[in-house]
Amino acid sequence: MLNLVLFGPPGAGKGTQSEKLIERYQLVHISTGDIFRAHIKDQTELGKQVSQIIANGNLVPDSITIAMLEEEIKKNPQAKGFIFDGFPRTVAQAESLDVFLQSIGEQITGVVALDVTEEELKQRIAKRQELSGRADDAADKLTKRIEEYFNKTVHVLPYYEGQGKLSKVNGIGEIETIFDDLTAIIDKY
Ligand code: ADP
């Protein structure tokens, strides 16, 4: 299996690149943000539990997120591999993912981090808000999300660096150029 973690701050372009990568490598895309939004839209129990947390730009508790992610993996027993987008966002999530993958005889193949400056991120998300209308794209919520990223999520990078699995790609530039940089790394796995 090819199991990739696509890593980066809010607005880094993970969603855009994931769409292209799943097509190229025939992988299953697991975006925890997208799954949470689907639950909220469908007003499931889980959706009700997390909607306020997400609207405020906070991270959903690890226990909830990890359980949901494992369910998603189990739903796809035929998958050739997965792209994890927006997960893991904490070291505890990264550790749980390793334990879970091991239990099914799998592992993370590699982690690619999209490097984007904070200034560029704010501009992109402001633009996206006009189109998406996502409540958590509002300026104060966005600040909170970027804070969550720098407080909790960046610590995931040294975790994977320690495993020798981390690569970085410049996330500013043409979508196609960034995609080429990503595939150059993935093709070497
Ligand atoms: P972004 O566009 O900021 O990268 P996502 O669409 O990935 O955001 O996620 C939106 C929100 O969903 C996050 O701000 C957070 O509240 C919640 N969320 C998504 N993935 C996780 C996760 N792995 N752990 C905790 N919360 C998460």
Set down the secondary structure blueprint.
Blueprint (H helix, E strand, L loop, with lengths): L1 E6 L6 H12 L2 E4 H10 L3 H11 L6 H13 L6 E5 L5 H13 L6 E6 L2 H15 L6 H15 L2 H7 L3 E5 L4 H12 L3
Parallel strand pairs: 1-3, 1-4, 2-3, 4-5
Short description:
The chain is α/β, with parallel strands linked by helices and 189 residues long. It has a single domain, classed as P-loop containing nucleotide triphosphate hydrolases (Rossmann fold), CATH 3.40.50.300. Helices cover 57% and strands 14% of the residues.
Report the bound ligands by name, code or SMILES: adenosine-5'-diphosphate
DSSP strand count:
5
| Count of individual domains | 1
Q: Under the CATH scheme, which class?
A: Alpha Beta
Commentary on this structure:
With 189 residues, this protein is α/β, with parallel strands linked by helices. The chain has a single domain (2-181), classed as P-loop containing nucleotide triphosphate hydrolases (Rossmann fold), CATH 3.40.50.300. The chain has nine helices and five strands. Helix 2 packs across helix 3. The longest helix is centred in the middle third of the chain and has 15 residues, at 118-132. It binds adenosine-5'-diphosphate. The site of adenosine-5'-diphosphate (ADP) has 17 residues, from helix 2 and helix 3. Adenosine-5'-diphosphate binds at residues 10, 32-33, 36, 53-54, 57-60, 65, 86-87, 89, 93, 136, 145.
